[in-house]
């Protein structure tokens, strides 16, 4: 039967995998803001991924303001760090010799990811309608946050749960179950 530490690590890893899935969805989809005008709707993302295949991404980098770049990099770094957090969780789960050290690395990295996601949510929530130029005040026009934003919120919640469970696992590793200092 697995020890209490292993159960906590498995639980934290499952929540971290869920966070990674939702980070991927929110980063790579184009529905951060929905704009509807008399039954016709459109949406925009934080990065125009279609520019990669058409080799026109320099247009984004030349015309995007600082906030757009900030939003993109916050999500990109959350994606990259979440990938490495999953690697550290796997090492902690499968290699007992490194369990103590990598449990702490996982918890710290997951905490950083949580901070990045929460900063993204707060800043984007404040700034998403800054470039509309009064468009939202025209009758028949609706501007709302799209599903990609809400997927990012889900990722932040899953990441927070992973940090809490990972912290309990790190405490357990320090005090009880881990003999591999």
TrEMBL record:
UniProt entry keywords in alphabetical sequence: Membrane, Transmembrane, Transmembrane helix
Transmembrane segments: 7-28, 71-95, 107-126, 146-166
Name of one Pfam family that matches: Claudin_3
Name of the featured protein: Epithelial membrane protein 2
Organism of this sequence: Haemonchus contortus
């Amino acid at each position: 039967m697995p020890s209490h530490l292993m159960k906590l690590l498995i639980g934290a890893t499952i929540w971290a995998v869920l966070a990674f899935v939702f980070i991927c969805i929110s980063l790579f989809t184009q529905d951060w803001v929905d704009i509807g005008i008399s039954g016709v709707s459109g949406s925009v993302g934080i990065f125009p991924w279609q520019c990669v295949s058409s080799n026109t991404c320099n247009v984004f980098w030349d015309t995007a303001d600082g906030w757009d770049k900030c939003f993109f990099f916050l999500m990109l770094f959350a994606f990259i760090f979440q990938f490495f957090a999953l690697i550290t969780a796997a090492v902690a789960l499968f290699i007992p010799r490194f369990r103590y050290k990598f449990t702490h690395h996982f918890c710290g990295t997951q905490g950083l990811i949580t901070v990045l996601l929460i900063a993204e949510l707060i800043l984007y929530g404040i700034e998403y309608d800054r470039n509309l130029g009064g468009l939202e005040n025209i009758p028949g026009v609706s501007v709302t946050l799209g599903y990609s934003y809400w997927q990012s919120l889900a990722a932040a919640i899953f990441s927070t749960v992973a940090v809490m469970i990972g912290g309990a696992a790190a405490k357990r590793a320090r005090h009880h179950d881990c003999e591999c200092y």
